[in-house]
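Morning run. Coffee first, then this:
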Amino acid sequence: MKLLSTVLTSAVLLVSLQAEVQKKGAEIGKWTQDYDAALKVAAEKKVPIMLNFTGSDWCHWCKIMDEKVFAEDEWKTYAAENAVLVTLDFPKDKSGVPEGFAERNAKLQAEFGVRGYPTFIVLDSDGKTPLGQLGASQDASPAGFIKQFKGATQLSAANVDAFLKENPAKEADLTAAIKESKDSKEALNEWISTGPQQTEENNKKFAAFQKRIASAEETLVKLMEPKKSE
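And here it is:
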């Protein structure tokens, strides 16, 4: 009986969460399938976008994230001010996906190189600049996921602007650090695109790229650390 109760509870929760996803229009903190509307809201409100590539009615890990994170009030309260949420669904039951959205979802999946579900792609408010990619976890919690999201959006345009207003003397250093972070990642991607063979020499090159990226990220974190109170 306990197992049946758990299954029924999960089924009711899944239906409830699916019902909360808007098919038209977009609002900050509310899930929507309307990608175009989400882009407009993000641009107007200067809020990052999170794309949730999911298989809502069959994906085990997607359901875990829905239950442990997105159904919780702690996440909903945070998202209500900090994120535009887009559901890009690949369900077995296609009836819940509006006409034309399935093809669009497939194009976005290819564009962002998504190979598994769930995949959470975080974009800046311009809908173009990638800020990070988040994943699922058996131990997922609202607090843990919010921490990941904050880390990914640390360098959003809005956050950088707000930081520089409070710390104008750091503008040159921060600009240089952001450039180095982007350049280091682009250099790695460009090298990978050449299809290097797995050799000892190339392994060393890859490690050097990773070290450069880590150093750039560490510099950014230190620059943007909150001032410690005296």
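Residues 200-223 form the longest helix (24 residues). Good start to the day.
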